[in-house]
Predict the structure.
Amino acid sequence: MAKGKEIASVCSQKMLADGIYSMWIQTERIGIQAVPGQFIDLYSRDGAKLLPRPISLCEIDQKEGRLRIVYRVAGEGTREFSRYQAGDPVEVLGPLGNGFPLKEAEGKRAFFIGGGIGIPPMLEAARQFKGEKTAILGYRDSHMFLVEDFRRLCPVAVATEDGSVGVKGNVLDAIRAEGLKGDVIFACGPTLMLKALKQYAEEKGMECFISLEERMACGIGACLACVCQSAETDSHSHVCNKRVCKDGPVFRAEEVKL
């Protein structure tokens, strides 16, 4: 799948929760080629900000070539994006990364698990999965987002750290409290959550695919800024590393050390 840079245009944008924004963008090519689990790089209009911001794909409309991103304002770059309005141009590189291997799990009972800003990429993955599925979503508090989008696709279990909504605790607490059973896990979120899910999957004999969140620079695997520790030697760097942007961001849990 060829990646490339293009000038896309903003279709719409709205705030979903405090500091969380949803943006639809119209592309010429990227939206037609993208698959669940991939991401795009967005470039600032400020020439002083040389590095793009990697943002996961929340929804993919391949027929129309549109993409939805849901992101958190975390700095000046994303704050700039949050001010974009319909019709504004935006420079985009993509599609990047490998995506979730959904076809491998067809017919199995799947958990789609997201924590915090790791929730958005799980939406399109759940939408395109053919089989029994449950979404387990973890938030800090009642300021949630995308819950109703998931409920239109499958049953949803919610955990909040403060117990204001759903089960008090984390996504594993929700799985146990609801007595959920599955065969395969697809997940994205904080490293501690992914580490716990990896251990849970090993204990339960489940397949587990995790999408890692790392700081990135080039987005194409050249700079090695986003490497993670791997179980095997990387053919590119010849050490026990994986490039999250190039080899991932999705890995089998047993491939990486968390």
Q: What stands out?
A: The chain has a mean pLDDT of 91.
